[in-house]
Amino acid sequence: MRAFILISLREPKEKDILKKLNSMKEVVRTIVLFGEWDMMAEVDVENTDKLGNFVIEKVRSIPEINLTSTLIAA
After folding, report:
1. Which residues span the domain enclosing 46?
2. What CA–CA distance (Å, rounded) separates 26 from 44?
3. Do the Cβ atoms of 5 and 69 come closer than 8 Å?
């Protein structure tokens, strides 16, 4: 399943976060955004359980990440 994770950072460390996210096998691509959200990660996972685990255990565990919002693609 494909999903998009919108990410808000605590501090402007986009380059560091992009490296961390792009090293994860679930991440298809990352994009820096301008506006309310700082970046977006497109991910590919097997199911909603794996998506939840990925967001909680890998993405939200990055200290510089303040907030996420996950959008599941139809």
Report:
1. 2-72
2. 5
3. yes
What's this model's pTM, rounded to 2 decimal places?
0.94
Measured distance CA(31)–CA(42) in Å, rounded: 8
pLDDT in tens, 23-71: 999 999 999 999 999 999 999 999 999 999 999 999 999 999 999 999 9
CATH of residue 67: 3.30.70.920
> From CA 74, how far away is CA 67, in angstroms rounded?
23
Three-state SS string across 41-57, please? EEEECCCHHHHHHHHHH
